[in-house]
Specification:
Number of strands of chain A: 4
Helix content of chain A: 10-25%
Mean pLDDT of chain B: 93
Largest sheet of chain B: 7 strands, mixed
Oligomer: heterodimer
Shape of chain B: globular
Number of helices of chain A: 2
Number of domains of chain B: 1
Strand order of the largest sheet of chain A: 1-4
CATH architecture of chain A: 2-Layer Sandwich
Low-confidence stretches of chain A: none
Radius of gyration of chain B: 18 Å
CATH class of chain B: Alpha Beta
CATH topology of chain B: Rossmann fold
Mean pLDDT of chain A: 92
Strand content of chain A: 35-45%
Number of domains of chain A: 1
CATH topology of chain A: Alpha-Beta Plaits
Number of helices of chain B: 10
Distance between the termini of chain A: 10 Å
CATH superfamily of chain B: Thiamin diphosphate (ThDP)-binding fold, Pyr/PP domains
Structural class of chain B: alpha/beta
CATH class of chain A: Alpha Beta
Number of strands of chain B: 8
């Protein structure tokens, strides 16, 4: 069975650190960075890109459209 | 497979909608308004009708909606968005005209305009964001505030003898002859966002085909007004808002 391989790219300047993508990720692969962006928000980062299957839940949930999801077949 | 190979444009499965511009949104982190803006942008892009779409902004948190979506917008006086939209739709019958309103705008100051417009069956779509509070002005009690819910103007909780009962605008709208589609959706989970998108798309199609008024109520959060984190407010919405404002179609006439 073909396995999907995904990765996300977060627009860290636009991210407001609302934590909704962290909760929405079914595999719990996103967390908030200890670093902050220019607005003082802890932006979201992907912790383990190897496990991501590109389901787009984080992107759909992100209120500010900061997340671009890439998906391909391995 | 390395990171650079995957990050190629043909592998993109989700990104910021084309019609949403790069202006940073003024909404608080985790606000439901931003999610609905994104849905509207996606739907208009999918339908390919951005050239003949006119949105009517309310007064409230969404007052700056015209800064974020690259479509034509008009700013209406407080609560008067449906009246403004009626005029626009009559002047440009082939255009898609929708209003985007919060509960303070639609359910309180503009109740008269809303009910009369929906009753006349104007071919417009009304998107109604219900977060049970006046978000922009600092969390005062709205007509949709739940019983016992604490706000800055009812610090001991909403009481029936003092403040009356929460207003269910969608249930009223469903009884009117002019409406063809009345639905209540939420944007608290990924599944609910997908259903809300489908509902808004159907409402837009109804408006274009001249079937009558459509009202899409979206139960949303106001984390700043509710004094919670975005994640807590989504849980609070599921536990408290959804039992009083159950999701689903209240009226759907397909002919």
């Amino acid at each position: 069975m073909a396995r999907f391989k995904g990765i996300i790219e977060v627009d860290t300047k636009r991210c407001k650190g609302c934590n909704l993508c962290v909760v929405a990720c079914p595999l719990k692969l996103i967390e908030l960075s200890p670093l902050v962006n220019r607005n003082g928000y802890n932006y979201a980062v992907q912790t383990d890109p190897e496990k991501c299957n590109g389901c787009s839940s984080c992107g759909i949930m992100c209120p500010d459209g900061c997340i671009t999801v890439y998906r391909t077949k391995e | 497979m390395d990171e650079k190979t995957i990050k190629s444009p043909q592998n993109i499965v989700y990104q910021k909608p084309r019609l949403m511009n790069d202006t940073p949104m003024h909404y608080c982190p985790g606000c439901g308004h931003s999610i609905v803006h994104k849905l509207v942008a996606e739907i208009l892009d999918e339908m390919g009708i951005e050239e003949k779409t006119i949105g009517v902004c309310p007064v409230g948190c969404a007052v700056f909606a015209y800064r974020y979506l690259d479509i034509d917008w008009i700013e209406a006086a407080h609560g008067r968005a449906p009246a403004c939209a009626s005029a626009l739709k009559r002047l440009w019958p082939e255009h898609l005209v929708f209003t985007y309103q919060g509960d303070g705008d639609l359910a309180c100051i503009g109740t008269g305009e809303t009910i009369q417009t929906l009753n006349r069956g104007e071919n417009i779509t009304v998107i109604f964001i219900n977060n049970a509070i006046y978000g922009m002005t600092g969390g005062q009690m709205a007509p949709t505030t739940l019983m016992g819910m604490k706000t800055s103007t009812c610090p001991y909780g909403r009481q029936a003898d003092l403040h009356g009962f929460p207003l269910k605008i969608s249930d009223i709208a469903a009884t009117l002859e002019g409406t063809c589609y009345v639905t209540r959706q939420a944007v608290n989970t990924v599944g609910n966002i997908a259903r809300a998108k489908k509902a808004i798309r159907q409402a837009f199609e109804n408006s274009l085909q001249g079937r009558g008024s459509s009202l899409v109520e979206i139960v949303s959060t106001c984390s700043a007004g509710w004094k919670m984190t975005p994640v807590q407010s989504n849980q609070w919405l599921t536990e408290n808002m959804l039992p009083y404002y159950p999701l689903g179609d209240l009226k759907n006439i397909k002919d």
